[in-house]
């Protein structure tokens, strides 16, 4: 039996992936916003720390790109070699993304954030490499995420070191 792509299946997968990405964004905001002031505001930050207003538009864009990337791979036939592993990597990096806000902001712990963000970056890069063999557009959609999380890793390290590593 051959799996076929139908509009209903594609829409269903779009709803699933958008719901997953929105859930991650919502969980992250729930941990972040209550801790911006006074905790995060009181931390020493490096000179390359962007203003707080940048994070919303950047993450909004990245979440849209993540949803597009995930959907493009999700709609491939389930029998596609490598699809399952690639999607596992995608959902692992998504879970680590959600956990980071809780570890860094909610726990008030740059070191816990660092413990999360390093494997998160590795999972993103691994996912890009798997997506590339399946759908190059999906892979390229995740490249800005890797760049931003790479920058965030450096920022996380700097904040940890400046605040009593």
Overview of the structural elements:
By secondary structure, the chain is an all-alpha fold. The protein has one domain (7-162): TspO/MBR protein (Ferritin), CATH 1.20.1260.100. The protein is 82% helix and 0% strand. The radius of gyration is 17 Å and the shape is elongated.
Key traits:
single chain, 165 residues, mainly alpha, Ferritin, 82% helix, elongated
- The appropriate CATH architecture is Up-down Bundle
Instruction: State the order of secondary-structure elements, H for helix, E for strand.
Output: HHHHH
CATH superfamily: TspO/MBR protein
Record field, number of beta strands: 0
Question: What Rg is obtained from the alpha carbons, in whole angstroms?
Answer: 17 Å
Domain tally: 1
Spatial separation of the terminal alpha carbons: 57 Å
Strand-residue fraction? under 5%
**CATH class (first level) name:** Mainly Alpha
- Overall SS class: mainly alpha
In short, what is this structure?
The chain has 165 residues and is mainly α. The chain has helices spanning 7-42, 52-74, 83-106, 110-134, 136-162.
Topology:
Blueprint: H1 7-42, H2 52-74, H3 83-106, H4 110-134, H5 136-162
């Amino acid at each position: 039996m051959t799996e076929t792509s139908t509009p209903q299946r594609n829409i269903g997968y779009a709803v699933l992936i958008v719901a997953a990405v929105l859930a991650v964004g919502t969980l992250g905001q729930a941990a972040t916003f209550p801790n911006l002031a006074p905790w995060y505001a009181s931390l020493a930050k490096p000179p390359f720390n962007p203003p707080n207003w940048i994070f919303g538009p950047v993450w909004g864009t990245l979440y849209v790109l993540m949803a597009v990337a995930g959907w493009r791979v999700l709609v491939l036939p389930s029998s596609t070699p490598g699809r399952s592993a690639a999607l596992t990597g995608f959902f692992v990096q998504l879970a680590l993304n959600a956990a980071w806000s809780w570890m860094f902001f909610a726990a008030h712990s740059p070191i816990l954030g660092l413990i999360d963000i390093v494997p998160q970056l590795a999972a993103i890069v691994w996912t890009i490499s798997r997506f590339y063999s399946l759908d190059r557009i999906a892979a390229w959609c995740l490249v800005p995420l890797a760049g931003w999380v790479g920058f965030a890793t450096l920022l996380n390290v700097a904040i940890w070191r400046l605040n009593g590593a």
